[in-house]
Batch of 3 targets.
Target 1
Amino acid sequence: MSTSRVLLGFLILLFCVAPSLSLYEDQVGLADWHQKYIGKVKQAVFHTQKAGRKRVVVSTEENVVASLDLRRGDIFWRHVLGENDEIDQIDVALGKYVVTLSSEGGILRAWNLPDGQMVWETFLQGSVHSKSLLSVQASAKMEKDSLILVFGKGFLHGISSIDGDILWRKEFHGESLEIQKIFQPVDSDIVYAVGLVGTSEFHIYQISAKNGDILKHNSAVFPNGFYGEPSFVTNDMLVALDATRSSVILISFTSGDISFHQTYVVDFGQEFSGTATILPSKTVGFFAVKVDSTVLLMRVKGGNKLELAEKIGDPAVISDALFLSDSQQAFVTVQQDESTIHLTVKLDNDLRSGLLKESIKMDHQRGLIQKVFINNYVRTDRSHGFRALVVMEDHSLHLVQQGDIVWSREDGLASIIDMTTSELPVQKDGVSVAKVEHNLFEWLKGHVLKLKGTLMLASSDDIVELQGMRLKNSERNKMTRDHNGFRKLLIVLTKAGKILALHTGDGRVVWSLLLPYLRQSGACQHPFGLNIYQWQVPHHHALDENPSILVVGRCGTDTDAPGIFSIIDSYTGKERKSLRLAHSIAQVIPLPFTDSSEQRLHLIVDTEKRAHLYPRSREALGDFLHEISNIYWYSVEADKGIIRGHSLRGNCFLEVADDYCFDSQELWSIVFPSESEKIAAAVTKKLNEVVHTQAKVSADEDVMYKYISKNMLFVATVAPKASDDIGSVTPEEAWLVAYLIDVVTGRILHRVTHMGAQGPIHAVLSENWVVYHYFNLRAHRYEMSVIEIYDQSRADNKDFWRLVLGKHNLTSPISSYSRPEVAVKSQTYFFTHSVKTMAVTSTAKGITTKQLLIGTIGSQVLALDKRYLDPRRSLNPSQAEKEEGIIPLTDSLPIIPQSYVTHSLQVEGLRRIVTIPAKLESTTLVFTYGVDLFFTRIAPSRTYDSLTEDFNYALLLLTIIVLLIAIFVTWVLSERKDLRDKWR
């Protein structure tokens, strides 16, 4: 065989090899990062056994149960329950099981304390909505079965702690009876259930712990009625407030006999004349009442008398009791000033002198203290030491011990509600830049290790060392922008009202700011964050002024509450301006205009449908009035099944004239029949989406023009019966209707019905296509459908001479009021996964092939090429279609394991995927958040416009040197040969 044939065969083999999408082991973590969180802690249980004293089990508002290391705060194990599986209570049974009650008393689980493996799970049936209660009977012997009492859904259950079997079940079917407390005294066979009928009738049940039979039932009426829930003081006494909240009621039920003892709050001092509130705490013989700005620590004395034990300034938090012995208990009170928390440990028999007093410096951006949990340990001198687990207003968690913060967790990042991005400053004098030591020896060593890795000669230690050097010397952590646009700030807003800026390099917190600081100035008592927007991005004078963001919120949780604005510097996190609005906030509309200082104009629509312009400046008003006739918006009232279109008509008619307030008018409305359709999803395009070209050339050289409109809205409706969980209806009772609507005119551009389909529905709209995911009841599989819409009014622009002579309409303006001639192509495919959320990649110029990013039920992110969702796919594509890149039709969409953006990691509680274009056209930045955070960058069409970061420059340099040496040697040999030939 000739050399040319061998070379030709090698080239053919090379082009037939499919490119790999996998990562090397030493590449993971270089372009991505993953952070684990748990959320705001609701309840904490310290394990008291010797083997478990270094850990604490917690439950959180994000439906997480986790075991934390008390030394460093790391997660030993963690379980994230479902979105609708809220954790009600946790406890420890038999000294080795963590017991969790969730789903409003519907599911009881036991987890192995050391490793978190689920031991058993019990489903508790019931249809009555009621309060859920959990009580675990203490057992002296770990191997002895103990009773777990659970009240939920109208039933009281006695459950075995060993295997979760339901031993007995008792129904409380009273229509208005609400069980408030259940408990079983130690070494007693009687279970007590305490409840209320209405607000004044008190009931006490004595129930056999062996079979659940009611042994005794007593009731009594308190004429003035109760306020709120009663709180236990002892095993036979509760405390509650009367209906006026001016007196404290002691409810005693010794031996089942009920008696009431009323004490007025003013009896403890004439200054205590306000309404009272009982603070939640579990301390035997004590309870706390908050009156005005003072917390009163009350002691029950002599059976039915109250004594004021101590007055504590507000804000203050009191922990539950910690039993040091059978006859002694300790608890902790925490007070707080601007930057210090004062912690005092008290004994129940000596309140005057605190057992331990400590002051700990706390960042004022953490807010007020919310909860405290106390635990003790034995020092070397056999005395008691104490540690406290502190939950702050920003949802952060801190362990305090010996007057210092041992560790902190930024668990507010588990509850992000909105985010935006900001460019970093350009590199200049005065800008902080991360300095990395990088000498010649390290440079040479790094390239030697790279070369060894390329030649497959590197050991495992070499790979670890190489990865460490890459992370140390990486430029991704600098606080300046790079020419590829990879380094940015991710600015997030959490449920706690805290704004944090995260660096895309490693996810560290650059700065943070707590929104509730507004209450300190008296502007707002209960600020509540809603959304975050770009406010000012000074492109033309980026070296002179920092960009800023706008945080929009409410002064309270009510929709009619006044709105609040906060403008924050993107680089420093300092507030530039705060404002309490005179109106509510129902909708925020960022406008595509800026003033001379490059502040973006925003339109705020209140609950009375009036629109308010911000910033309130004459220049902004002039620009706005120039474009007022082109401003339209829509609103979706999903509960009523109505979509409305709005525009502006003139200034508001108010008692005090306001040039920045405008009345709106309704242009159109679409009312979906409530008996047949219910709005399940409404999706529009990203405001900053870039479309590279309107034309699309097909395989037969035909030109199709995309219908590109920023006013297009996708709406999906389902049958009202099919709005519940999958399988709740038959295929004949279920359907899904998909609409494409122009929001300026309200015209329905396209409508399609899927019979036998049911939600939940997830959709993404981009360019001229929409992809949506749903469940097919007939096929018992998930499906994904795609709709592409094309502009037929420009279909005549295919003649070459018409284009040359300018007789075309490509440059004519597009108006929503001219009826569009559109053509639609659609296709449906099976998909094997349930979906949590969907997004689409976005690049700087819109040239790169798009990918769908799908958040799967396994809390991972899958990248799916849009070509798989091309509606023009056919079973036998022609050769021209194959050259165009059309893939042969299959009934299911492929799932390639190497296409998981998150690799083998899970983003627990995944809620949203955000894509951010980089300056490099081939690359998209991806930020995924839920309970966890994950960031990476992907190249849907590979990095065709750059060399990768791990490109082996040393090998390239070595190759060039070898080639130069070979050229020189060859030249010398050739010269010698020529000389010899001439001498012959």
Target 2
Amino acid sequence: MIFTLYYMYSTIIQWWRLGCLRNKLSGTLNSHNALMVCAGSTISDSKHKRCLENLLFHNEDRIGCTVVPKQRVDLSQWLLFPKDLNYFPIFISDANVALRSPKIYMLLRARLDDYRRHESEIIQVENFGELIAWRAQENFEMILKTDLNNLTKFVHCFFDHSIDINHELNLLHIETIDIEGNPSRIKYNLRYPLEYRIKYSLAPVHWRKFTNDLKSLYLKLSDNLCNKLEHPTITIESTPKTVPVSEVKPIKKSLEATKHHHKTVRKESKNKLEVSTIDSRRPKSNERKAKLEKTKHKTASVKRNEETEPPPAVRKQKPPKLAKCANSLISSKTPVTETNGVTINSKPPNVLVYADSVVARDNVKNVLHTILNNHKYMVYDFPVSGSQQLWLNSTSLIVVCGNVAPEISTQFLEYLVSGGKLLCLCSDLLYSVLHIFSTAEVREHELVRFSYENWKRVKMMHHVFCYQASPAKRQFSKDSDQSNSSRGSSPVAPRMPSAVEIQHGGKKYVVQVQVLGAEETWHTPSLLLAAVKDTKGVAIFSQVHLEIDPTQYQDDESKFSALNDSNTARLEILRHLLSQHLSLDCNSIVDIGYSPAYFLGIHDVKQELLTQCDAIKDGRLVNDKITVHFLGKEMEPEPATATYLPVLIHACPSNFSTVQYFEALKTTEVGRLVIYAEVLTSSQLLLARKLRHGFTVIVKQQTQGVGRSNNQWLCPVGCAMFSLQLHVPMQSTLGRSLPLVQHLVMVAIVAAIKRKAGYEDIDLGLKWPNDLYANRNIKIGGLMISTSVFSDVAVVNIGCGINLDNLLPTTCVNELIRLSNVEKKTELPPIAYEEFFAIIFNEIESVYNLVQGGDLDLLFELYYKYWLHSGSEVMVTDKDGVASMASVIGIDEFGFLKVRLKDGSLTSVQPDGNSFDILKGLIVPKRF
């Protein structure tokens, strides 16, 4: 009786759990997203870059979630199962499963190459649906047609515990997909005995035979088909059907429109593709105009209301097409633009580092960060592959350390002769530029004394590459060279030429050579200057290790002591070379010290957060990067550091006007609670935990700012920097399209400035996906976003930096206002620091509330109003370097860039993982 009751109880619980899971899947899955269930602590899919939409469950190492967009699988890359399953190595029983509508396609991935001893329950997948296709690559994959009931049962089994599918294949991954095309049919010749197909003996050798049999069948596909198995990494969606431009809309508002979207239509003329701006996608309605008017702040004047009137229905002039990738050489100077006679950097100038080892690269980066103006230059790794156009005209210097591959040497030489600047530290690139130099085995990696300018007899580590013949090594002897003459202390030292002729690209160039420094024993050049005549190309070749910190020689007491004594001279020499010969700004700006921060806002609201937020315990907000300590009136703060931030609750900062800020702030939540700090490593660190919707951090200066894809983020004083936390319900309009949040914030920034009376014509625009540009080609801001999902809410942390009152590294908003005053003879005041944050937060909350109220069209209209890419042509380059031109159509419902290829097909390109320079017409795989 007890066992019967227990069985009944277990059955009821099982039935209840299945019902809950089925309801969750039914309410979550739709035509846009996909269910993904993985074994492991993280969700990773290197071939298909997608966004996590909703976390459904997490049980030990089982993770279930929805992702967007849904993967579309081309079945032409797959094989049909044989009609007689005895010809298949895996045992599959004859099952006839009745399926209900709607049908769902399920992709299963199981472990193949990695042999694992069987310890899990085995289930036969054919009992859960109809077998559609299979393939065997690194893993074994199969596609089933199923329904919601069978999908729920299968996911429940996998969620509950580890399972093996047919033939003891350890299941790794379940995903719902869409399919297209038909699987290929092959001839199955060999029959497999039943005992062979049901279970192998538990030994790796038998497993290898099984996997070889399976892969041999799969290899029967033609070579042409096999070559198609990998998709370009930048492609999210690629369908063979042609869809007209007018149908590429981020959101379908009606069933009729949705049906029309999927109709097959005639292809448009590829050479006459025209994409207009807002109105071809979403005409602004009178109803939406009324909504916008209702959101105007109470202090807005009648004139400001007039500023928000929509633009004319049709633009009179189509924006110019973006330049295609040019084959001609471009000047290596930082790209500049001229505004009212003032020359402005278009982008922060880059310093690229190429090294033959990770240690050498880190050494170079560390010393550059010490010497260069840290508010002006962006230091990146050199992109060893990809188009040269991505870096050629935005690079101020390339630092080369160590051996260089021949194809890279060609790029460096091209950069040099077209006006670029090189700093080569103990590199064999010396011989590509100055072929008269030969390798000698003199003082290889030894401590030597050398002199340069006012620095005499400095002890440094000298490299193997020397301009010196070796009396001990005949293969390096110059005795037979009649051009040599005795010069210096060495009887065989060759004569130093003042100029060398080189050839590149079918042209001849004269390189003028000058010895800047030499070591004292052999008088071999330690520092060389090579200048390309009639161009601005300059290269410095150092045969001493100026990049190495003395601490790397701590195990060698004699070398460490000598190098440590010369360390100041090393840094001074390197600074002199960079500033005097390579024209870089070495006025290093010293960051101000850390100090206590301030908690701003209404007292009751502050106390509510401090007492009710789960992330704050005993007045401390702690994560693995920083501890934030909230302090009352009588509490004395400890000294602030990079990892400890005392925050004063009852005090106000002296250099941030809280009166001006809160008078201009008209929001309900966004920006109402603020931590204001003079200096932080990164404002994003303070939002690592779930706090409150609208919680904000404003920081005057950051020491370790990070941008998208972990790129360096320059944070000079005068840059308006903030981090904002938004809590977005997963079932809301934005919750179903989380990537659009970044577009919403950037739209709000532009709209906030342009809605100020008199500031409508300040030329600001948006570069996809999240950069702010002035005059169409000057970058003055950007943002990064990180998202965490907590059950039914997504916590979105937005980090943003806008050049407000700083001319470095490019220009700033207030400089644009000043130039506009000069041009139009107006007297518009600059935007105050505190007001700038307030009007942006006002706009963010206003647009956010409208969108969450269901008016997603408003966001797209504003985005297209301000973006820079209508009618643009870009070159899409896949990871194999195959390039094709495409026309920009718009953005899809997830914020990804929608382009039409020349064959008429549409594809979406996502922002993360790509180096994207749309203003130059380039999209290529991420290299920096």
Target 3
Amino acid sequence: MEVPPEMLDALAGWFAQSLSPDAAARRAAEQSISSAAASPGFALALLGLAASPRHDLQARLAAAVHFKNLLRRRWPKPDADADDAADLLPASDCAIIKTHLLQLLLTAPPLIQAQLSEALAAAAACDFPARWESLLPSIVSSLGTAVNAGDVAATNSLLAAAASLFNRFRNAFDNNALRLDLKYCLEIFAAPLLEVFLFASRRLQAAATTANPLELRPVFECLRLCCEIFYSLNSIDLPEFFEDNMHQWMSEFRAFLTTSYPPPVEADGAPDALRAAVCDNLQLYMEKYEEEFRAYLKEFVEAVWGLLMAQTASPSRAQLAVTAIRFLTTVAESVHHALFGSPEAMKQICDSVVVPNLRLRDEDEELFEGNWVEYVRRDSEGSDADTLRRAACRLLRGLAANYREQVAALVSAQVQQMLAAYAADRANNWKEKDAAIYLVIALMQKPGATGGGTPVVDMESFFTSVIVPELQAPDWQSEPMLKATVLRFLKEFRDQIPKATALALLPSVVRFLTHESNVVHSYAATFIENLLIIKDAVPVPGVNAVTRSPRYVAADINPFAPQIIQNLSTALSFPDSYENPYLMKCLMRVLGIANITGQIVHEITARLVGILMEVCNNPKNPDFNHYLFEALAAVIGRTGEQDPALLPAFEASLFPVLQRILVEDISEFWPYAFQIFAQLVNLSRPPLSQNYMQLFGVLLSNATWDRPPCVPALVRLLRAFLRKIPNELNQEGRLPNILAISRSLLSRSSTEDSAFYMLNTLVENVGLDIMNPYISEIWSALFTRLQSRQAVKFVNSLVVFMSLVLVKYGSGVLVSSIDAIQPSLFSQILQRFWIPNLKLIKGALEVKLTAVASTKLLCESAVLLDAAAAQLWGKLLDSIVTLLSKTNQDLAQEQNDGADAVDIQKTSGYSVSFVRLQYAGKSEDDLLKEVNDPKQFLVTSLATLSAQSPGRFGPVIEQHVDPANKSALLQLCAAYNANIV
């Protein structure tokens, strides 16, 4: 694999500059890399730089990361759409990469090795094993060579590659193809894995008394990787090879759990990392293969319990404890719970495992003060790396599942003891109260949970005597970790706090928004934000159904909003909270619900714009940035609609920063900027200012649409312009330009949604007099695409578009314009695509639109009313009834509340992608507001039609409509007092 040295030198320079703190230098380097990515052999050059020992390690590492991400995006997938082929790596480059990647991985430094291992997994996910048959045999062959030579480092590199290869078996959907791949892997790799495992185990036993951790660390790592692969290969089913050799594996596992190594080795942490991997495997067998594992269960419970009792200075002991407790929890929740059922065992678990691990440790305090982001991630968000506290809580809940009264008695006594200790010496025993609150959080029943049983404490009394005093304490800056736990309690039980109580406590919570601890003010913000999205079930009058209604509305939050906004603004200036996503999310939510007026609107807009100006220098926190733009959208949307006079002030504040985003090519923010522009255009009144018309010119430039992540936002902006200035399309060749852009979008499956959205927008907003000269061009593009693209998604979009044309311009225009392309083409389209796909349409507005349009076809179109089209007429009616037979509940579930969508929406990584701003978008327009009920529209239209030709349509319905749908149609006729005669 030869790469020109000058190419490697140039790449190394760009990657070095891409790490520069200077924004201009960084963006120039990123632009150079982006330009080079389009050239042939770019992936090979990246791999060559990653493997080049003569270049700087940081540049090599950056190249390896870029290479890994490139393979994830552009490696050809077996089921890839032909439209996306231009973006994929050429087959020749892929072949070279597959030939060299494994060998380069073996010789790379550890940091680069990890990235290349993930790159290998990305390529293998598409090609292995069917299109990369040499990979696994190469790994096995190299493993044999490394083991025979006693080369543990090379063995570990190969095992790491294999581990990344097999990791997909852990979470993939179980199907026959996956099982065939697993069978292939087991046949080739299961026996060599056991050989390597036993080789490393023998090597460890021979050196067990060695006190030098550096010598033993690679051996422990080898065994840990074997355990990781063991887990992957056993994740789907218990393979015969592992069942036949279970005794060998379990004997070694038990030895690792029960053997003590010299203190320097234990302190290194490698033994505990291996034990944690063993505990993961034990839990897997306990969960999935309990019958086969039963014979080993008691000895492993004793071994794991012994580990939790042992004291050690190992830095990995916390993670081991988490996995060990998780295993015990699985046993406690199983039919083998009697192993813990005796009063002595239960008390020992509570006293020696649960309570000690619930108490705050020195490491927790250090993390709280030194890395608040990681503390919150572990403590509150349920991160991948479980904390000891969370694991201990789960063990307690696992025991309580079968022994709730016994556990409740033990915990209740423990809580009282801890609170008494705190009362005796508040200054020194605040950790006791903290642990007591955690115990209550662990065992209190949540709404909707099953089980019931003995309560741990009286919730109302505990809340009043333990929680409220901390919230209202004058010294609210003291004991920040305890205050954080109190706020965490509020968040966990927010649904159960009566509305009046929550509003009464809100001023106390709002104080904590300016607490000097990042964790505390983050938890306060999270509680307020979570409080505002609570919804209660409200019965729908006259219908046996419920709807979800917000518990807290603008009137509830308005009195507190100015102080909340002010405190959040203050907290955003604190050290390390400049880009705190929890604060910004809370601000977004308050601005999206409260009614704010006057000076506060200008102040918060200026504050948000100032923050945006700062993050433009280095957009590094995608969650914060998303909530920042949502907050801006919320201010513009809520206050701009209420007071249009604010629009000039918004434009004056926002145009400079939005223009900076475009001019400086801050690509991460382009999709957001276009959505904000769309919002401003929607609020404007024609004629639009010169600034907007210049933006309209930029929008119609083909180069603007060359960035796929921006396309959905650009379509929203175009939609806004078309609503305001539809007649401007006749000028300067704008409409042909837009149609050319739509054809380009239509040619790719990844942007075809946006193409249809653009065409729908044109039809909705532009009259037939303007569209008529171009309608044939649109049909030609759509039907040409249909010849190669008949996926359900595409055909459904086409049916929706045709329905829109019918509703807007009339059935005659729809039929004649399509038949102008080719005689009788409409009938063919109707029979092959419209009728079969109509019943597959989803979305409340789409269902209504297509049902009404199809009804109009039935009752108005000469093509369908022709006696020769009786079968087609009946089949179309059958599809309409099927479509409308979907329950109202199904359609309601497809609708989403904007605020909820913001809550569940997560941005990922740092790549440019389109993320919809919920507060910037209005709900879609209903072009059929005059039709309240499409079912009623159907039967009344049919009744009117049949009255004009009595006796004609009954036999057609009898012959061509499905019996179930005939029955449904009769029920609809009865419900709406209509008759088909």
